[in-house]
Write a structure and sequence with these properties.
Blueprint: H1 15-27, H2 38-49, H3 56-74, H4 85-98, H5 104-120, H6 123-138, H7 142-161, H8 176-180, H9 189-192, H10 197-208, H11 210-231, E1 237-243, E2 248-254, H12 256-260, H13 270-290, H14 294-311, H15 315-323
Antiparallel strand pairs: 1-2
Length: 324
């Protein structure tokens, strides 16, 4: 390493040599005050984060370096990072997300900060919180949903149910449907159509943290469709199902739009149909994977039925069972 001010790394090693180089940068604090160019440090850390088998001590060193850069980038709100959060912060956050197992505490606090600024911050902070949340959902990695699944679900609830406190809702004809469901403007069809928000988030969540994914999918749709049933009582009926094994009768909100939302667009808000669709796709994939082992296959199928029948309040989620 040429550690004069602002110099690049003279070597860009691979394998064990890369790990040693990162450890040296961290131990000697060469990332501080740009003693080694930041771009060079980011490059070697990103290359390390992409490998399949990482070393705990090196991963922690990489995360501490990224957290140092993030802290310095974020401490001055007037250096325009509020307006270009993806460009300014994304390069560091991507590495943190890839190595989320070594950054759980920092990420937990970061997501709490995002929620706080969205709900109580000024207009710049609210805009930043929304942008960084959507960017996070679109740039999720398996490690992030594995180690921070609950935090991501709480962030989604905040962004898509809560309206920014300092912002007047612009719900009009185009957003009236979302309003009935208690959703924020961020869940409007116009906004959601510009972002594949849940494609990567939901797939990774279900594949790495199935129980948390199912719990969130059910609770989110329960809340949204429960709001709709309360606000549009003339558009919803209650159906009852009898379960002979337990001798229980359970009621569910129903209409044709809920039942068809998994296969036909614009029946319900996009965010709800996305959740139902991707839940169905991932659960079928799980069952396909286990179909050669009848014992596990049947156990998995029974668990899915128990979760959906027992915890859902609507036929949108019940339609998943019919599809399976």
């Amino acid at each position: 390493i040429n550690n004069n001010i602002g110099h690049d790394l003279k070597l860009l090693p691979i394998g064990k040599a890369r790990e040693c180089m990162i450890q040296l940068i961290f131990n000697e604090k060469l990332y501080i005050d740009n003693r080694v160019k930041r771009s060079s440090v980011i490059k070697i850390c990103l290359d390390y984060a992409k490998i399949t088998f990482t070393v705990n001590s090196i991963s922690k060193a990489v995360c501490r370096i990224m957290e140092y850069y993030l802290k310095n980038e974020m401490k001055d709100q007037y250096n325009d990072w509020y307006y270009s959060s993806e460009k300014k912060l994304g390069q560091y956050l991507s590495i943190e997300y890839m190595l989320a197992g070594s950054a759980k505490e920092w990420l937990h606090n970061f997501f709490e900060l995002v929620k706080q600024r969205y709900l109580t911050g000024n207009s710049y902070e609210c805009r930043w919180a929304k942008d960084i949340s959507v960017w996070t959902f679109e740039n999720v990695y398996p490690a992030l949903t594995t180690h921070c699944g609950e935090e991501l679900c709480e962030l989604a609830n905040c962004i898509y149910f809560e309206e920014e406190k300092k912002k007047k809702s612009y719900h009009g004809i185009l957003h009236e449907q979302e309003l009935y469901y208690g959703l924020s403007d961020n869940a409007s069809r116009m906004y959601m159509s510009r972002h594949e928000t849940f494609k990567y988030f939901f797939i990774n969540l279900f594949r790495t943290n199935l129980k948390i994914g199912m719990k969130w999918a059910i609770s989110f749709t329960n809340k949204a469709l429960g709001n709709f049933a309360e606000n549009k009582q003339d558009a919803v009926i209650n159906i009852s199902l009898y379960f002979p094994d337990t001798k229980e009768i359970k009621k569910y909100y129903a209409n044709s739009a809920m039942w068809m939302c998994r296969i036909k667009e614009h029946q319900v808000p996009t965010i709800i149909s996305d959740i139902v669709y991707y839940a169905k796709e991932e659960l079928i994939e799980y069952l396909e994977y286990f179909k050669q082992d009848q014992k596990i296959f049947l156990k998995m199928g029974e668990w899915i039925k128990k979760e959906i029948y027992g915890k859902s309040n609507n036929v949108a989620m019940l339609s998943i069972i019919q599809e399976i």
